[in-house]
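chain below, 172 aa
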Amino acid sequence: MINFKKGNGLTLQQADKVGPVVSGEGVVAGMVVRVHTDGTIKKGVSGTPLSDLIGFAINSQDDTDVTASGKLGVFLLANNAVLETDQAASTINSTNYPIGKRLKATTGGLLDAAVDGDFVVGHVEGIRSLPVVKTVNQDLSAGGDGLGNAHKIQTFTNLLGVKLEGYLWKTA
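prediction:
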């Protein structure tokens, strides 16, 4: 999931970069992605992050818009932009992600706390809990024949607010 709190909210037509996603990458909206020099979009950062453009996936790889067009939109790192994502390496809470904590991108596309020597993509701006609707299946039939009913329930998901840097920088 990705939300834009400050800066331009984007659609596929307004994305900073648009390109084909490498098959089987499993990119999810809100993940950190890289635009490779050949224009393809891959999940996470590479071993040489300064050689690729780094940003956030606007859509998931399996979204209808992406599968129909064959392209995924990317929001590149931008000064003064604040976005929210649920794509984090640890449980999103104030213990794991205190306000002001520097964040890095993992090779799997998730955000994690940065330590010395990491390339920083931004810092924690805040945490917000938003309601979401999920579909759950529950087998209520006699004898447990597996012909259960699907139900929609409201639950909450925590989002990590990220104040983006305009570029990658390495911590000392």
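The chain has a mean pLDDT of 84. The chain has one domain: 2-170.
thats it, cya
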